[in-house]
Specification:
The chain is an alpha+beta fold. It contains 14 helices and 31 strands. Strands 18-17-23-14-15-22-19-20 form an eight-stranded antiparallel β-sheet. Strands 27-24-26-25-29-30-28-31 form an eight-stranded antiparallel β-sheet. Strand 4, helix 6 and strand 5 (138-143) form a beta-alpha-beta unit. The chain is globular and about 80 Å long. The structure holds guanosine-5',3'-tetraphosphate. Guanosine-5',3'-tetraphosphate (G4P) binds at residues 21, 23-29, 50, 92, 143-144, 146-147, 260-262. One of its GO terms (cellular component) is cytosol.
Length: 534
């Protein structure tokens, strides 16, 4: 059965994106402002008034409360200008995890927030790399223009040189810091100034000034700032990349916007343009290479994240799915392709800013969390019973921190192995073994160091097992892609370590990038990869 007109309409309204940034660039503040426009919350601060509301968003693990940070990601949905927007919240603190990367696999585009005084920072670079891998469109919001900013041209160069993506400024800031007057909208050809906003409201008034309106420019912008703007725009028109929607949608060109999330300058304008340029849900590819059309095909979805212990009263797990095609109807049974089981999804829900809403229907582009009776794994596909679609798995991302795990009480061997394998199956950690050792010598790899604490905490509280973690100095991991390689003949550097993952695939750990290169040089034909398709 193909989809109804209503379903097609609903799908076309969806815009599903993630916000990527380095901590403190303003991701939370920007999200908060977006939600204000959608009317999803009434007062800014509901996303994160540090002490309270951030917990409300994902008050799932005890450890989050103890540390006052969000370990998990959630999804926020709201309507604006006829679109139904899903924002995938990616944990943004220093200790982000593999889930942050996986969440990006569920997005159709990304908004990259950059602090105007700092330019591209480390975490932005990492997240960008993952987005670039799936060629999703990336929209840049350069934030904090109300503070002294780097030179605008330098900011654009920084993005191009650091990330290797062409930039196309959609608007241009007029001054920064105390002298921030507003922006010039290049497409409309007018200046937009903003009145002071009251903290926490969207009421700040925008004024549009035509370039011919001398009097208004004098009053609102000032001649000096206007002359500087004119010079910069001339330069930009001559040298900058031209706007090209195809390139934007192919992830080759990032449209750049300037503003201040805190003061609500340029946020609505950004959202307005972004919704026009961002694509409705894009089709995902099945493992046999077929692109599944979101509008044509019946319901299908893939699991991108599994969250344990959402409810302290039960040991429950929630599997997060991205719907890839059609419409989900709670009254109908679906098939879990990997097990062949036909079933009704249990308690499908959508996570709003501070509540969970049980869903009766959802559409391609939407994210839903369903109760997992222990059958789902990351990357699994769910579709209608009559269909068989298997989506390409989610890649295994390279961990960046490693530790050897030792048990305090070796009598609890069984619980330890069970616990650590289950946690690894959920994808919170990756476990590795050295050659010639059994499961008593486990090396754990994580994307963010916080996951070590999560592991320790969960083994203790759920499996009653205490562990000691001995940090290892490795920072680079590469899977060996050559088939039938004899690992004993591989010659590396003295500080290289040969290990295997849980699927017995060989890999190498290195302390620095130099060793990676050296090992490549010493072994002709060696193929190493940073991501591994499961
Ligand atoms: P994040 O989620 O990317 O980590 O950043 P977040 O929004 O939490 O913002 C980090 C800090 O930067 C916050 O200040 C926030 O108020 C400030 N900020 C965000 N956008 C802007 C902006 O456009 N201009 C200016 N000047 N500041 C901005 P804080 O003092 O760390 O936190 P809070 O006490 O204000 O919550």
């Amino acid at each position: 059965m193909s989809n109804t007109k209503e379903t097609i309409n609903e799908i076309n309204k969806r815009r599903t994106f993630a916000i990527i940034s380095h901590p403190d660039a303003g991701k939370t503040t920007l999200t908060e402002k977006f939600l204000l426009y959608g009317g999803a919350i009434n007062m800014a601060g509901s996303v994160k008034g540090k002490a309270t509301a951030r917990h409300a968003v994902s008050d799932w693990m005890e450890i989050e409360k103890q540390r006052g940070i969000s370990v998990t990601s959630s999804v926020l949905q709201f309507n604006f200008e006829g679109c139904c927007i899903n924002i995938l919240d990616t944990p943004g603190h220093q200790d982000f995890s593999e889930d942050t990367y996986r969440t990006l696999m569920a997005a159709d585009s990304a908004v990259m927030v950059i602090d105007a005084s700092k330019g591209v920072e480390a975490q932005t670079r990492k997240l960008f790399k993952v987005c670039a891998m799936s060629h999703i469109p990336i929209f840049t919001f350069i934030n904090k223009l109300d503070r002294d900013a780097m030179d605008t041209f330098d900011l654009l160069d920084d993005i191009e040189n650091n990330l290797g993506i062409a930039t196309c400024p959609m608007n241009w800031p007029i001054g920064s810091g105390k002298n921030f007057k507003g922006i010039y909208d290049r497409r409309e050809g007018h200046i937009v100034t903003f009145s002071e906003t009251q903290k926490g409201t969207k009421e700040g008034k925008e004024t549009f000034i035509s370039l011919d309106d001398k009097a208004a420019i004098d009053a609102e912008v000032g001649q000096e700032a206007f002359d500087k703007l004119t010079g910069e725009i001339e330069l930009l028109d001559g040298a900058g990349a031209e706007y090209d929607l195809d390139k934007v949608r192919a992830g080759q060109l990032t449209p750049v916007f300037f503003g201040s999330a805190l003061q609500n300058f340029g946020v609505e304008l950004f959202l307005h343009h972004f919704l026009k340029m961002a694509t409705p849900p894009t089709g995902r590819t099945s493992s046999d290479g077929e692109k599944i059309d979101p509008l044509e095909r019946d319901f299908s979805a893939f699991v991108f994240k599994i969250q344990a212990n959402m409810n302290k009263a039960h040991r429950d797990r929630i599997a997060f799915m991205r719907i890839c095609s059609g419409r989900y109807d709670a009254d109908k049974e679906v098939k879990h392709v990997q097990s062949g089981k036909v079933m009704r999804l249990s308690q499908p829900q959508q996570l709003m800013a501070d509540e969970r809403k049980i869903l009766s229907e959802a559409y391609a582009g939407d994210i839903m969390g369903v109760f997992d009776p222990g059958i789902f794994s990351i990357g699994d596909t769910v579709c209608m019973p009559k269909d068989t679609i298997t989506y390409e798995g989610i890649p295994t991302f390279a961990p960046e921190h490693f530790a050897r795990v030792r048990q305090v009480d070796t009598m609890k061997r069984k619980q330890f192995v069970k616990g650590i394998t289950q946690i690894a199956q959920e994808g919170a950690i990756q476990i590795f073994q050295e050659y010639n050792t059994g499961l008593e010598e486990i090396i754990v790899g994580v994307v963010g160091v916080l996951q070590f604490d999560v592991l320790k905490f969960r083994l203790q509280s759920e499996y009653n097992v205490d562990i000691i973690l001995e940090n290892l100095p490795y920072e680079y991991i590469r899977w060996v892609d050559n088939e039938d390689i004899d690992m004993s003949t591989l010659v590396g550097t003295s500080d290289m370590k040969k290990i295997k993952d849980m699927h017995d695939r060989p890999l190498l750990l290195f302390i620095n990038e130099w060793s990676v290169g050296m090992t490549m040089d010493r072994n002709k034909g060696l193929v190493l990869s940073e991501f591994k398709k499961n």
